Amino acid sequence: MKKYSCALTLSLLLIGITNSQEIIRRDPEIESMIRQISPQRLEQHILKLVSFHTRHNMSEQNSADKGIGAAWNWILKEFESYVPASGGRLKVEFDEYKTGGERQRIPQEITLKNVIATLQGSDPADTRIIVMSAHLDSRAARDIDNTNAAPGANDDASGIAAMLEICRIISAKPFPATIVFMAFSGEEHGLLGARHTAQKAKDENWNIIALLNNDMIANSDAGETLANSNMRLRVFSEGVPALETDAMASLRRYTSGENDGKARQLARYIKEIGERYVDQLDVTLIFRNDRFGRGGDHTPFCQLGFTAVRISEFNENYDRQHQVPRTEDGKVYGDLPEFIDYEYLRKNTGVNLAVLANLAQAPWEPVNCGIRMSGTGNHTTIGWEPPKQGKKPAGYYVMMRETYMPLWQKKIFVTGTEITLPYSKDNYFFAVQSVDENGHESLPVFPGQMRR
Predict the structure, then answer these.
(1) How far apart, in whole angstroms, are the C-alpha atoms of residue 38 and residue 347?
(2) The domain containing residue 430 runs over which residues?
(3) Quick one: which of 63, 73, 49 has its CA closest to 152?
(4) Per-residue pLDDT averaged across 192-201, rounded?
(5) In sequence order, what are the beta bridge partners of 418?
(6) What is the CATH number of the domain that holds 440?
(7) What are phi and psi of 312, to 5 degrees?
(8) Which strands make up the sheet holding 367-371, listed edge to edge?
(9) Would you say residue 18 has pLDDT above 50?
(10) Boundary (domain end) residue, out of 294, 329, 361
(11) Which sign does the torsion angle of CA 409, 411, 289, 213 carry?
(12) Residue 277 CB: number of other CB atoms within 10 A?
């Protein structure tokens, strides 16, 4: 490895958590795609999904305009309408599975369907898969109530609407990596559709490098606390991986990397890229896998070792979650479309689009990243190797932050594969990411011990 002097090769891009000037460089193509997001189309999608009365997992499957079957058939047709613009790269299909039975939340065996839309990467050798997911089912108060209205405008028609709008916009553009849109059924009865697909991905060895699960991304009103803001978005991420090998645990203990697993790196990436492209929005990192006592469709993927996070609105309104629509004492209950903040949904859709587009164009991650641990001193030497696949990076960012800071503070651009910095490895955490000539970055890689 060639060693580069810090003083000669540093190019600092400061991320705005310090008092330094922040430099924002946007890809004009990604910026243009985000401008195409239509709040009107998002609203149309939500209204259509609400029109099916209920999308309960035990509701009708054979009606054209009512029940969960009408919903997944409509979603399939919407995805299919984007196939011509993709030049045939977009493939849309149902993924069926059986679930339910005695002593289960669904008391009898039924067949449910996920809708999967795969935008095949333009590079046949690129096996990377980036996933955006949301759930298509809805529920009122009771698990088995499949007849009362369950509009599910926010939970989770908002996630489905965002996914459809992103697929419409990006299908016309080739990306080296593959982007997959997953509309899951079964979420409200135990993450059933996600569990089915996660196991399938594991069994078939899918190279999923990131999964962005969007669940409730369009409500800005907290209800009882009177908090109201469409300027904050939460990203939940696990710390210690749910599936951790002995080797991973040993490295985590050695490096004190409890806050630097792959899900945390993805969450930081979403914050950086999302805020780069979407104005008037603070992506807030929640350092736990999900909310207390509840779960989302990212969790089955985490449990099988995939890198997955949950994206969700900052304020939740429980008068509008799993409620039978009604008015009591002048208060309206129910997850109804009139409570959706469509400007907020537009911004949150933009965050997802920016991350998908940036990551799908980025080089592969650097490999064998390590810190030289031998000897003592107040300098730190970090080395890595170029990615073994894909296009050659234009360079690399070495990222650093003080140990008590949650976010990366500096990004140092280098063209070599080793650097010595005048900062003690005892006082800072580091990571390395590949970057191409247009500024598209890979996910950060947290270094272990440098190989001799």
Answers:
(1) 10
(2) 4-26+365-449
(3) 49
(4) 98
(5) 383
(6) 2.60.40.10
(7) -150, 155
(8) 4-5, 418-421, 380-385, 367-371, 448-449
(9) no
(10) 361
(11) positive
(12) 22
Contact 90, 79 (CB under 8 A): yes
Please write the tens of the pLDDT for every residue from 141-192: 888 999 999 999 999 999 999 999 999 999 999 999 999 999 999 999 999 9
Which of 337, 361, 385 is the C-terminal boundary of a domain?
361
What is the pTM assigned to this prediction? 0.93
* Locus of tokens 């449910």: 112
Structure tokens at 59: 């509701």
User: What pLDDT score does 24 carry?
Assistant: 84
Looking at residue 5, its pLDDT comes to 36
Other CB atoms within a 10 A radius of the CB of residue 31 amount to: 14
- The confidence score (pLDDT) of residue 286 equals 97
Specify the amino acid at residue 275. Answer: E
Using the Cα atoms of residue 59, residue 64, residue 69 and residue 72 in order, give the sign of their dihedral.
negative
